[in-house]
Amino acid sequence: MKSQSSETYSPNLEDQLKQELEKPVIIGLENITKVYGIGDLEVRALNGVSLTVKQGEYCSIMGASGSGKSTAMNIIGCLDRPTTGSYYLDGVDVAQMPEDDLARIRNLKLGFVFQQFHLLPQLTALENVMLPMVYASVPTAERRDRARVALTRVGLENRLQNKPNQLSGGQQQRVAIARAIVNRPVLLLADEPTGALDTKTTQEVMDIFTELNHSGMTVVMVTHEPDVARQSRRIVVFRDGQVIHDDLTPEDLHSAGF
Questions:
Q1: Dihedral (CA of 51, 55, 59, 61) sign
Q2: Contact 189, 138 (CB under 8 A)
Q3: Hey, how many other C-beta atoms are within 10 angstroms of the C-beta on 23?
Q4: 144-183 burial by CB neighbour count: b if 16+ within 10 A, else e?
Q5: Beta bridge partners of 52
Q6: Integer CA distances (angstroms), 119 to 136, 174, 185, 255, in order
Q7: Which of 110, 14, 116 is nearest to 53 (CA)?
Q8: What predicted TM-score, i.e. pTM, was given to this entire model?
Q9: Do 170 and 201 touch, CB atoms closer than 8 A?
Q10: pLDDT in tens, 197-234
Q11: Which residues contact 149 (CB under 8 A, 6 or more apart)?
Q12: Which tens digit of pLDDT belongs to each residue from 127-161?
């Protein structure tokens, strides 16, 4: 009598592709332009940019100074509007949305991490992380609980009552990450998040982004550092206001000139 096979089978390639195709689109840029000035003084910062990022992706955006990557990031973050084109954020066209509605979108759907930490110096780490929830009208007790959970997630459970001047640069960036994720955003945006950090601290922060992505969070990061970009799973390259590569792997980066 044959013994029952103990082998387990992973989903086949067709199933994996189907699952990938069914993932919701978080970022949908369609033929985006951004023009500054008029006439002879016109500058096209973005020129027909289309880009799709799906739920759960971890994407780096690279490019030289003036390539358009920062302008694209500002539009993705609803901090600026395109001159023409459509931008669908989590299925909603936000390109020409009124400012009050955009502010609410930023607070509820987006988390931001910048090179400078932008922490309020008079507030503790816990209070800094609670701040976005004030604007989201989260009850006080829930704010405190969620802030503690977010700070624990980035390894700062023993620094809740420290103010920014009592924290190292890496710890301050961790507080900023906790603040960015506390409202449970659909998209985490990081703009040169390691630019002010040393090599060891850079890796600690990148490990946090990787863990957040592994837990299902969609992460898009602007960086000029190839070693940082290689830790993401997809790399987009801008040049002269256009996307010249939209799906490089970390292994492809060297052959692309980085």
A1: positive
A2: no
A3: 12
A4: bebbbebbebbebeebbebbbeebeebbbbbbbbbbbbbb
A5: 28
A6: 18, 11, 19, 39
A7: 110
A8: 0.88
A9: yes
A10: 999 999 999 999 999 999 999 999 999 999 999 999 99
A11: none
A12: 999 999 998 889 999 999 999 999 999 999 999 99
Q: Which amino acid is at 169?
A: G
